[in-house]
Amino acid sequence: MARTPEKSRPLASKPKRIYAPRLISDHIMVQEDFERLHKFLVETEDLSEISDDMRELVEEEWPELVHKLPPRVPQSG
Rounded CA gap, 66 and 39, in Å? Predict the structure, then answer.
């Protein structure tokens, strides 16, 4: 019996990462938000400021991009 060759993905493509919806600064982030944010972070050299919620998200989801974040601001209190 002859087998039909399966369609193979090009080696360069990675499977699409799926992100669970997440609440960040009173906004529910969905898959498209994560994808846009990741693209923005990859293309941006340095950020001038970032919320604590967003910093936590970047640290958890994309630790390789943490170096692009501004230094933490000490909490006064």
Answer: 14
Please give the pLDDT value at position 3: 60
Does residue 77 form part of some domain?
no
pTM of the shown model: 0.71
Q: Is residue 54 part of a domain?
A: yes
Q: How far is residue 32's CA from residue 13's CA, in Å, rounded to a whole number?
A: 18
Q: Which is it for the CA torsion 33, 37, 38, 39, positive or negative? A: positive
Element housing 61 (H / E): helix 52-61
What is the extent of the structural domain holding 51?
22-68
Percentage of the residues of the chain whose pLDDT score is greater than 90:
56
Q: Which residues, 6 or more positions from 28, have their beta carbon under 8 angstroms from its beta carbon? A: 21, 22
